[in-house]
Amino acid sequence: MGKYELPAVPYNYDALEPYIDARTMEIHHTKHHQTYTDKLNAALEKCPTDIQEKDIVEILSNLDQVPADQKSAINFNGGGFDNHRIFWHNMKANGGGEPTGSIADAIKSSFGSFSEFKEKFSSTTVLIQGSGWGWLVYNPSTNKVEYKSMPNQTSPRTDGLIPLLGCDVWEHAYYLKYQNKRPDYISAWWNVINWEDVSQRYDKVTV
Question: Is the pLDDT of residue 142 over 50?
């Protein structure tokens, strides 16, 4: 067994119905997230011990420390592992609505209003070419939240940003239910956001 195990989804696969279907959740978790986990472990085993002993968050935050022949594999699979363990917790049954507290204030400060943030996030994430993620991130250098799109499974951490809320727009995240209608999937996704989780992530890095 490698260093990392597949993290559990904190609810039943059907909990996000009708917005995200149970079959998609099951395949996404047990097949895709499992593959990223397994391949991350395989890549880490080819790295020096001091890299193996570091947490994946620390590794992604400084990929230059990774041996050149494993950097691509750890960027992709480490990002996939970390992105998805955030993604599952970013959602919940009976989610959605608008955030409150400090994260709501931060969004308003950066984007003008929640509705302007939602529009920017949705419209920009829809346009990601191929596979990737749309993210609300915290930028420690500016002390502000920002929108950031990332290709494939590359983590915002590789750009010095802290991921708070992510929307996975790989086709495996929505194709069974929405086919090629990515805008419909993103629109539905807003109904399952776990703003308490996003808020806790924000408070953890800003307090």
Answer: yes
